[in-house]
Design brief:
Number of strands: 2
Number of helices: 11
Strand content: under 5%
Helix content: 40-55%
Structural class: mainly alpha
Number of domains: 3
CATH class of the largest domain: Mainly Alpha
CATH architecture of the largest domain: Orthogonal Bundle
Shape: elongated
CATH superfamily of the largest domain: Cytochrome c-like domain
Distance between the termini: 104 Å
Largest sheet: 2 strands, antiparallel
Length: 304
C-alpha cells in the first residue's frame, strides 16, 4: 500500500503562504503554529514582572505563623487600627459627654446630637454583641430563654438605669459579684408527680390558659407553700428578685403545659455575662459603649 493510500481522504492541503504546522493532525486537520501577538506577549511578560515586584514590596508568601512582610512594611491590620483610632479621637468629646450625663437626660428633644450618637452607636454594639442571643430585632428566642426586649415585661426592671445595670453586670454569671442573682428550686425530687401536675395546672389557670380545674384547685396550696415566696401569692412575681409574673401571657421559656412542667421539675438558670470593662475582667465594652447600647435597648419600645 502506497503512502498516498494511507492519507485521510479529506486531509487538509496547505496553501501557499500558510504558516508552519505544529505537526499535530486530527481528522485530517493540521494545526497551524501561529505566533502569539507581540502586544499579548509583552503584556504577559509585564504581569510576570509585576507579580514578582509585588511579592517583594508587599506581604505575599505564607509562612508558618505569618506571611512575608514585604520591604514596604504594608499592613491592612495597621491601617484598620489607625482608622479606628482616628474615629475614636474624633468622638472623644461626645463619648466623654455620654459618660458624664445622667442617662435619663439623654433624649431626642433636649440632647438630639448626643441621643443620635447613642442610638446609632448602640445599634452597632447590639448587632455585634447582643443579637446572637436576643436576635437582630431584639425579639429574643423563647425556646432558649433569651428575653424579648421589645415588650414591657422586665425581670430586673426596664428603666434606663435598670437596663444599664443589667448590661454592666449581667445575670447569674461568675465573673461579677454585682451580677443580678436568683435561683429557682428544682422540684423534681421535692414534689410528687401528682403535685407537680397540680401546680402546673394552677399556673396555667393563673395565666388564663385551659387547665384541669380539679388539679388547679389542689395546686393552689402547693403554689402558696413553695412558689409564692418569690412569685407572690397573686403569682404576679417580684421584679426585684427576678421572679417572673405568671399571670400574663409572656413566657421566657414557653407557656405550654410541657414547658411549665419542665420549669417546675428542673428549674431554669439563664446566664448573661457582664459587658462593662469596669465591672470585671470579662467585660468587653467601655462605659460609653454600655451607656449607648442601654439607651438603644430602652428606645426599642419596651423600656419603662
Amino acid at each position: 500500500m502506497t503512502d498516498d493510500q494511507n492519507k485521510h481522504p479529506e486531509e487538509q492541503v496547505l496553501m501557499e503562504g500558510d504558516p508552519d504546522t505544529t505537526g499535530h493532525v486530527w481528522d485530517g486537520i493540521k494545526e497551524f503554529n501561529n505566533p502569539l501577538p507581540r502586544w499579548w506577549l509583552w503584556t504577559f511578560y509585564a504581569t510576570c514582572v509585576w507579580g514578582i515586584v509585588y511579592t517583594v514590596l508587599y506581604p505575599a508568601w505564607p509562612l508558618l505563623d505569618r506571611a512575608t512582610p514585604g520591604i514596604l512594611g504594608f499592613s491592612t491590620r495597621e491601617n484598620v487600627s489607625r482608622d479606628i483610632a482616628e474615629f475614636d479621637a474624633m468622638n472623644t468629646d461626645i463619648r466623654a459627654q455620654l459618660v458624664e450625663v445622667t442617662l435619663s437626660d439623654v433624649n431626642p428633644t433636649d440632647t438630639p446630637e448626643l441621643y443620635n450618637y447613642a442610638i446609632n452607636g448602640g445599634a452597632a454594639i447590639f448587632a455585634t454583641w447582643c443579637s446572637q442571643c436576643h436576635g437582630s430585632g431584639a425579639a429574643g428566642v423563647q425556646a432558649s430563654g433569651y428575653p424579648n426586649l421589645l415588650d414591657d415585661d422586665w425581670l430586673w426592671g426596664g428603666t434606663i438605669d435598670d437596663i444599664h445595670y443589667t448590661v454592666s453586670h449581667g445575670i447569674r454569671n461568675e465573673d461579677d459579684l454585682d451580677a443580678h442573682y436568683s435561683e429557682m428550686t428544682a422540684y423534681d425530687e421535692i414534689l410528687s408527680d401528682d403535685e407537680i401536675a397540680q401546680v402546673v395546672n394552677y399556673v396555667l389557670n393563673l395565666s388564663g390558659q385551659a387547665a384541669d380545674m380539679s388539679l388547679a384547685s389542689a395546686g393552689e396550696s402547693i403554689f402558696l407553700d413553695n412558689c409564692a415566696a418569690c412569685h407572690q401569692d397573686s403569682g404576679m412575681g417580684d421584679q426585684f428578685l427576678g421572679a417572673p409574673n405568671l399571670t400574663d401571657a409572656i413566657w421566657l421559656y414557653g407557656g405550654t403545659p410541657e414547658a411549665i412542667e419542665e420549669t417546675v421539675r428542673y428549674s431554669r438558670f439563664g446566664v448573661m455575662p457582664p459587658w462593662s470593662a469596669e465591672a470585671s475582667d470579662a467585660g468587653r465594652l467601655s462605659e460609653a459603649e454600655v451607656r449607648a447600647v442601654s439607651i438603644y435597648v430602652h428606645s426599642l419600645g419596651g423600656g419603662q
